[in-house]
Amino acid sequence: MSEPIVEQHHIPESPGLYAKHQKVYPQEIGGYYRNLKWKVTAAIMAFYFLAPWIRWDRGEGQPDQAILVSMTLRRLYFFDIEIWPQEIYYLTGILVLAAVGLFLATSMAGRVWCGFTCWQTVWTDLFVWVETRLEGDRNKRMKFDKAPWTLDKLGRKTLKQIIWIVFSILTGAGWIFFFNDAPTAAMDMLTGQGTWGLYGFTLLFAGTTYLLAGFAREQVCIYMCPWPRFQGAMFDEHSLIVTYEAWRGEPRGKAKNKEAGNLGDCVDCNLCVNVCPTGVDIREGDQFQCIGCALCVDACNSIMTKLGRPGELITYDSVSNQMARERGDVPKKRLIRKRTVAYTLLLCAVLALMAYGLVNRSELEINVQRDRSPLFVQLSDGQIRNGYTFKLLNMVAEPQTFTLMVDELNGAKMTVIGVAPDPVDQVTLDVGPDTVATYRIFVRAPKESLSSQFKDMEFVLTNSATGQIIEYDSRFAGPDR
Ligand code: SF4
Ligand code: SF4
Question: What average pLDDT does range 223-240 have in this prediction?
Fold first, then answer.
């Protein structure tokens, strides 16, 4: 009897779903984009740490912090602008503005947000700067990490951690100051009088800063941030992006071999890879891991200058310009295109809407809720009575007085609990500064004033000081007909 044939299939070994993190040691480089990045960093730091300390006089009893998101007062203050929770649409407008602004910037200048202004990039840059000062530049840091522990290594590593932690705590506190009166919160925290909320949130933000900028670094951009996944939709061939001019650089080869063969301008020195904060080799083409910081442009330019070759082998330019240069044509910038015009128009429209809303903003908000249960009450004299909860939100820092009347309901009279116990044609209502006043109002009217079960009517408020009239549409319910 013959042996059964057993088929053997080779099952390839799984590459695994987890790859060990390869630490990136970016090398320091000077140049145009590096200087530009430091300037942007300085501006962001100045705003972040100084803005909560700017004072702004809003009158007595009002917070005097120019930019403040007050949780206790439930309000957002931005110099003279005050946004209440009821005006959440302004916040929506700000978010839409930020999103469209980002789309516009990306379609014009690629990942300029990621490379220059994103706080992950900025804070990581500063953390790496500290690391470089204490442990040396790329090669030294790599050797330093592999070297056995000595007193010197322990001292430097400890000092680095202390500086990182202090800076993280300052960052956490800086964030908290936007939500509290900065001088009071700082003093409370320094004297141990701060609330658990103050300490807790400062530590929370300090901890995330320390982890994200000190350790996670480029992994935030590569694995955590969703933006690189869809930013490609905003690019076209005219968007400025960091790219390698392969037509000029290839075939690459060492400088000394240049004359030996038909080599391109890239001398394969790897400096562009070494300076990259995300460890990208831009010569492999555009990659989502590239944050567009342009440090590789500085790196390559420095090599080209040393070799006496034309710069911009790695360039911050559009694909169409690269192709034009390859063909020998004159490149030209095309910032005005269909998509940039569309984003700009959208940006202007949202800005105009918000500006219109702010200019015509009412400083009084009315909210009226008619009782649903019971819908109406029939009084002993046959009249119909409806109950309303009347809320007046006074958004100014002074008390206001209003006269309230009912219109478009024949024979209507009101009683207001605590204000007008007997039926009257009009009633005076007071609202304190910066508060919501709630009144229970009962409107009564003869049955004959209703031609159907529901009758549209109006509450008419007249500001006693300014004479301004505000009308609020409501309904009056009666028996089914
Ligand atoms: S490839 Fe160049 S532009 Fe992209 S992240 Fe690296 S250094 Fe920055
Ligand atoms: S820095 Fe320039 S020359 Fe050096 S490897 Fe990169 S592209 Fe080539």
Answer: 88
